[in-house]
Structure formats: C-alpha cells, structure tokens
Amino acid sequence: MANEANKKRVITNAALMSKWRMIILGANALYVLFRMVYLWDSFSHWHMCGFALTSIIYLATYSLLHKAAAPVYAPLAQGGALISGGEDMRQEGVIEYSWDMLWTTMFIQLTSGFISDLFWLLFIVPPSIGFYFLWIKVIYPWISKPDEPPPETEEMRKRREKEEKRRGVRH
Fold first, then answer.
1. What keywords were assigned to this record (predicted)?
2. Is residue 129 part of a domain?
3. Residue 68 located in a structural domain
4. What DSSP line would sit under 58-126, residue for residue?
C-alpha cells in the first residue's frame, strides 16, 4: 500500500476539477442563455467585454488550479511511478485565493446577468484587496525601513575607540 495517500489525492483532485469544470460551464451557459438570448435587446458591447473578462478569469484560475492538482509521474524509463498526487486543493495561499476568485467571478457573472449590471462594480474588490496586502506586506515595510548606517572606516573606528577610552568604556 505504498503511496496510498498520493493515489487517493489523484482521484480526489480529478473528481474536484471535473466538478468545477462543469460548474464553470454551467454558469457560463446560464449567463449566455439568459443575458444574451432572453435579454438580447439590452445586451451591449459592455456586456460582451464583461463576459470576456469573466471568461479570462475563469480560464486563468482554472488553469492554475488544474496545474496544481495535476499528478507528477516518474519518467517511463524509470518505471513511470506516481511521485506526487498533486497539491492539496484545500491548502492556504495561492490555491485558496484562486478558489476565492472563482467564487467571486461566478457570483458577479450570475448576479449581473440576472439582477443588475451594477454588480460588475464588485470586480473592483479583488484588486483592491491585492493592493492592500501588497502595501502592508511589501511596499510599506520597504519604504519605511530606515537606511543602514554606512560601514565604519578605519578613521571612524579609531575616533570611536579614542572617545570610548576617554569616557572609560570597556568591553
């Protein structure tokens, strides 16, 4: 029963990615049928741009998740054994943010199609959150860090030792 956890993860990840492929296709089908077919009179080029945006986001996030879920096998010359069953799809970090982006995109697409076009404005939220985390984790600590003192030269070291000797400082 060697590598049993990896084998289970391959099966779990394949089922999960298949389920999400159907969910994404279903959400797109609902949007196309209701918004493009039933409400064609109010369908404008902005709606086409919004549909293109959601399609690009779906493609990018699904591709990232699919690549993370993909199993890794040894080369056939070495037996083709399963090395890794793919990443755990419940882990924190980029995978978690990708799931959040899929949920957000699906919510915005369906609510803007069925309820109101004002829901497209919610696409401002994810980049705002990304900028906030970039600011507090990277930019602000980088620009607020004090400069390092210049390296001590021989002349500065002698002057410091002379002053310490005069004050009676011992190490």
1. Endoplasmic reticulum, Membrane, Transmembrane, Transmembrane helix
2. no
3. yes
4. HHHHHHHHHHHH--EE--GGGT--EEE----TT-SSHHHHHHHHHHHHHHHHHHHHHT-GGGGGGGGHH
Report field, pTM of the whole predicted structure over 0.90 = no
Q: How far apart are CA 139 and CA 2, in angstroms?
A: 46
Distance between alpha carbon 14 and the CA centroid of its chain, in Å? 20
**Domain-embedded: residue 67:** yes
Number of folded domains in the chain? Answer: 1
Domain span at 33: 4-121
Whether 95 is in a domain gets the answer yes
Q: What is the pLDDT along the chain (171 residues), one digit of tens a residue?
A: 567 888 899 999 999 999 999 999 999 999 999 988 888 888 888 989 999 999 999 999 999 999 999 988 888 777 778 888 888 888 898 899 999 999 999 999 999 989 998 999 999 999 999 899 999 999 988 888 777 777 888 888 888 888 888 887 555
Tell me if residue 56 falls in helix, strand or coil: helix
